[in-house]
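Exercise 7.
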Amino acid sequence: MRILHTADWHIGAKTDDLDRFEEQKQALKQIVDYANKYQVDMVLIAGDIYNNIVPSAEDEELFYKTVVDLSRNGNCAVVAIAGNHDDPKRLSNANIFADKFGIYLVGSIDDIQIDKGRTDTNIYATKCGKGYIEFHTQQGEDIVLALLPYPSYYRYKEIRKEGENFQDKVKQWLKPGVSAFRDDTINITMAHVMSYGNDLEPEEFMSYTTLSTTFNYVDQKLFHNKAVYTALGHIHQAVAVNKDKNIFYSGSLINQFFSARESEPTNILIVDLDKNGVKNIIKQPLDVKTLKKFTVNSVAQAHKVLSKNPNDLVKIIIENVDNFDGEIDNSEYTPYITTTDLKNLRKQHPNLVTLSVITNQARSSCEIASKKDLTNAEIFDHFVKARHGVESDPDVKELFLSLMSEGLYEAD
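Solution. The predicted structure, written as tokens, is:
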């Protein structure tokens, strides 16, 4: 059988103040087109469908239209789980009609329902239980899909016991689903969790493990079971957590943040597999905007950079300071930047999303002239500098801010 793995659509998200809805709409249309082109039997959406717990009517309409299109009138099973940005109850309530289209929306491990009344499609659900759904195809294949929507004590209506290990608890929550795996079935796990792989640098590993006690990282070993493929959501890049065990993040729908990792196209994963394992994986890029950040020392350089990257969304930082840490073109360098200069930049370059100006005075006092245009990362840098008098640690900053952006402030 063939599956399409995607995640982290974040419908309704903005990049700084830029509305990305139309781009998301176009990216979702591409996913539908690829699902048809590759004739996939199942689409797995590994959480964070929306960017807000209470999505707008427009956001919900786009999601429902997309999954109905993906289902091909029930001939492709579409399974989506709740991420930390999704309301579990709101998502699963739609099953009152969704599963009649071969669409299964799972908010929690105890809330899985199926419609057994339709068996005339290419693939259909035959059985369900706590944490899993079983499917059958007209080609005679049986698939068991173990599901773990974003796990937290609050969402799973449990209270953390003193000294209880979160890893052990996740293993307990995952157990009912994976216990349904059999030797004669194609076993797949889908989860919305934060995990990490084997190939981390020592410094990266220390950063992950330090934060894991606070932000509920999940050890990848919890997925070392009979699953032939594990579809993860939560990290916005396509990451191979463990290639040997076929544990993958697909990455997000579109690039959302100005970071080095989001200057490449996003992807979906097309996976061919049977009960013996994965046969082939295609990393299919999507045609989406890439986000790029540049630091320059003059308005003239800003114009040049923006002109050279017309198809990208760009963040410009103008460091108009004597000790600019870059190559200064003295013929273009000017000690003053006017409001007119900044207005002209925005008027001439529609690809300019965010513009920040750091002056001598702002640098010396750790204050930014245009604070409203700064990203959370820059605000974090200046906060650490002002509070502790030192530069922020890049790895810890990136990890912390990625978690913050994922909205993990949820009462446990």
